[in-house]
Design a protein that fits this description.
It is built from seven helices and eight strands. By secondary structure, the chain is α+β, with helices and mostly antiparallel strands. 32% of the residues lie in helices and 32% in strands.
């Protein structure tokens, strides 16, 4: 793992300046709370990935090559998110980023969007590239990811028989072009 990984952003993420928002290290209690409250689109993403909601929320807590946080809005767990290292070279660190959220993401969209913008900017202090895939028909998620500054592959990727699209965001010193 790169020396810079998960050192700088963790300090920034914990000090979220957005009113009513706390970003804390995720716990099994957060995972247990959210597993019964995920948005249908998030539960579908778990299904497409071939994992249960329980596993999708609990397994990252044991990932030794990543970090998992919970977003708390007005005292209630809203989402869990995290990163897991994909490649680590001395000059490049790529992370797989993910987020699974509850109905609060849609009930308090301005607060949620501000919090996730803050998080993405903080994570890119450590990572050169953040990426993952999203189902191609999850229009709201794609719109949100676009707003966060992610770019998308031109060709779909098939995941367990479902069409998905790869997305990524580079920190300011890198640029990407899709073939």
């Amino acid at each position: 793992m790169s020396e810079k990984c998960l050192k700088v952003s963790h300090n920034f993420i914990s000090d979220c300046p957005i009113k009513g928002v706390q970003i804390v290290d995720a716990t099994v209690e957060h995972a247990a709370y959210l597993q019964h409250r995920l948005r249908p689109s998030d539960a579908r993403e778990c299904l497409i990935a071939g994992v249960s909601v329980w596993k999708a929320l609990h397994e990252p807590l044991r990932d030794k090559h990543g970090k998992t946080w919970a977003i708390i809005i007005d005292g209630e767990p809203c989402a869990m998110f995290g990163t897991s290292d994909m490649t680590s070279r001395e000059d490049l660190l790529c992370g797989c980023i993910w987020l699974l959220g509850s109905h609060i993401c849609e009930e308090k969209p301005v607060t949620f969007c501000k919090a996730t913008k803050f998080i993405m900017d903080a994570l890119l202090l450590d990572y050169d590239i953040l990426e993952n895939v999203v189902p191609i028909d999850h229009d709201r998620t794609i719109k949100w990811l676009t707003w966060l500054g992610f770019t998308f592959a031109k060709k779909p990727t098939i995941v367990n028989g479902f069409q998905c699209v790869r997305f990524l965001r580079c920190n300011s010193r890198l640029d990407v072009a899709w073939n």
